[in-house]
Structure prediction request, 1024 residues.
Amino acid sequence: MTEQPTEQPTEQPRSIVAGVETDGADVAAATGAATAAFPAYRSTTPVERAAFLEAVADAIEADRDAIAAAAVAESHLPEGRIAGEVGRTTGQLRMFADVVRRGDHLHVRIDPALPDRQPLARADIRQRQVPLGPVAVFGASNFPLAFSTAGGDTASALAAGCPVVVKGHPAHPRAGYLVARAVSLAVEKQGLPAGTFSFLLAGDKQDGIQVGQDLVTDPRIKAVGFTGSRPGGLALVAAAAARPEPIPVYAEMSSINPVVVLPGALASRDRAELAGEYVASLVLGAGQFCTNPGLLFLPAGPAGDEFLRAAAAAVTGTTGAPMLTAGIAEAYARGTRTLRSTPGVRVLAEGRAGGEHSPAAQLVETEELAAPVTDEVFGAAGVVVRYRDARELVPQLERLEGQLTATVHLDVDAAADTEAARTLLPVLELKAGRVLFNGWPTGVEVGHAMVHGGPFPATSDPRSTSVGSLAIERFQRPVAYQDAPASVLPEAVRDDNPWGLLRRIDGEVTLP
Amino acid sequence: MTEQPTEQPTEQPRSIVAGVETDGADVAAATGAATAAFPAYRSTTPVERAAFLEAVADAIEADRDAIAAAAVAESHLPEGRIAGEVGRTTGQLRMFADVVRRGDHLHVRIDPALPDRQPLARADIRQRQVPLGPVAVFGASNFPLAFSTAGGDTASALAAGCPVVVKGHPAHPRAGYLVARAVSLAVEKQGLPAGTFSFLLAGDKQDGIQVGQDLVTDPRIKAVGFTGSRPGGLALVAAAAARPEPIPVYAEMSSINPVVVLPGALASRDRAELAGEYVASLVLGAGQFCTNPGLLFLPAGPAGDEFLRAAAAAVTGTTGAPMLTAGIAEAYARGTRTLRSTPGVRVLAEGRAGGEHSPAAQLVETEELAAPVTDEVFGAAGVVVRYRDARELVPQLERLEGQLTATVHLDVDAAADTEAARTLLPVLELKAGRVLFNGWPTGVEVGHAMVHGGPFPATSDPRSTSVGSLAIERFQRPVAYQDAPASVLPEAVRDDNPWGLLRRIDGEVTLP
Prediction:
């Protein structure tokens, strides 16, 4: 069962539709308001839209103590982690403000008229990106702030010019409500239409699924952002595809994030230290990261044995931290039971269970890489596969499903490792959205070059990222204007370039 | 029934799988070869890949007489039109060669490491685009060259680094085969793997549908390009969505391309001349353009009446040209019968029928804009709607489905027209991929700023275009490299920038 908000909100700006009795009518009210807000909101100038995103960040910061307290209470995540998440959330909003102000995402292209071209004159053609329309965002359980109400999907959709309707995650209703209130205060402060942002909560799980379906099938919703389970994501993808007008769904779902340790890495590094880093990444946040390193390829032989003894000892020494919800802890218990009872799987180590909903970390070994061993177990469960020769790795990795990340540990001074890494990279880059070297996948930098995405089932759409500035491109599409009179042309594509945009003139990038 | 190739090919390079008995085994042979070719083909340098695209254009030009003759014979389109299409096809290939050589589509982003950042160091993160994998292309009936075997989808997929498997259109098997032979000769000449390009033909319609399904559901295919009917496109979209690993489908399907004539345009221009331009666009190529102006909004009143009398006279004076296939002519006959028997629809004019499969052009008027009047009739059938006030247009246009194009005719010196156009533009740009002014939608310029796409059902994915250089982006996705050693980094993201690429460093565009 879902927890209820711990106290009744005293102030409820009109653009929040929040309550435990949300039903279809509330969904329609929110999507109707979003549709009504769309023309004015998408017409904001870069300066106005950036100011709004910064006002959202300011409003969250103004209420950060209450927001952080609610998130800690509801998620059972440590205070330090939640404090970091507040900063990441506001940092993302400010980054998108910078992106919007710069305006490169408008991708202006101008092919000027060629009236004298033979055999046919060429028309004047100009291109820019326009926002898709109202976007539905489903926040994640495991990042109650940075991937939730005003998280990456909301920030990038608002940055693109799309109104947003958030379905609050039932695992953190109070934190969601407080953040939604902050967003709505910023909407009011900046004089934007109330429907620019709405927030919905549902009373229990069944209602929540219905509200989600109602939202995704509402004809006024034009795109969907989701972070959560594979069944949940696939249900939304199917619902969106079955609409009379199908719409894009960006669902981040499932990843076991393979890590390959090459022999040179074991030879050149302290095995116990490397194993300690691995286990720290594995149990971080009770293993509740989309990028949790669930699968490790380790060389056979004494150095690998030494690494594994140290890893097993480290896992044995851990104490389970409380998971986000009772349901997630139960799913972890089911997943690890399945894993341990799979033929060929041998338990290497088990940590101590903590208090309520705080199950023990698990480390297992297998030789056979097939489902269910390759299914994501959300939590601190690691699978180890030993290999004799780096050449065995390519077919093993090729059989895996799509991943958010793939990692290689190597000794850059060992020719054999470099050679192996160069062989693995073409396989890994087709399998994952991000390939890391000599690091651990947990922790996703928010920047311009980041990709948090990847082939199915890591996400439902690999052409995109949910973290970093490129995410704005999910929520827009190109439009061409042919021979448009100057008096009618949108600012972004006018000759005098009033917004000072980078433009591609006849295919050539031209700085403002 | 489909026509058979008019003579047996004497020379068949090994990468063409062509024959009237194509079945599942041939599909598997082609997709298997494409998968085998992918690692080498995607590893070609910009210079190598551009040379290949130019070699394809050269090979088509070397056989242009035979190709054009086959296309004319099979499509019944005039020689001049087909000659233009040969030029457009080779021009597209050469444009993509330039795009590949420049390399901007790789969208390189580098966020350098910040080892001293507090509280956490930042890793070095670099991003580039990688090709999705083997692409299935379904050519269009109405552009036997420019939208077919080596048309826009094939050219953009090859440019992105994806091997291509073409399912040849049964309406022009011989032209398709000859073009496929030219592509395969270029593949051989450039020393690329044979599976870089394959071509499949099926014996009859039922087999063709099966081959198409087999192709789209083959797990080795990673994206699909299609131009054709709405039922055909939707069937491929559904098949792709139902795969264990869903893949993107770019299906261009259905559009009636609304044209709005504003009062000032009628007042300032010769009505008969304007009407003549409209009818010329309507009957061009027997109306068999995706951008055919199927719906015209015309002011009520004497000037509109005058335009309409001239348009009716012009339609009456036309003689039907042979349509692409008997099936298409039959579908046109069914569509126009449905249109004329719809309550409220009044026939304004009818042309003369020509010879076989050469039905008469039709012009009708209605007051009620709803299906079936708003369904595409592929061919020279125009629907006219009269309006009293430009303000009536917004709700009418908002009710339309997504379109490839929308057009406004206005007098740029008339304040009321400009005001009306500024009111209409926000509606039209959300409804269509291209908005034209004082022109006609038939004829799509191939360039950097063009968008040939649009919201559903114009296409199945509005985030893209099938014409112009932006089309390369359909077939790639971003990958991030974190802390990759210099010895392992792909050329595109190396510090020394060996390909001389434009890069975004810490978010700032940096010219090479």
The radius of gyration of chain A is 24 Å. Chain A touches chain B through 81 residues (CB under 8 Å).
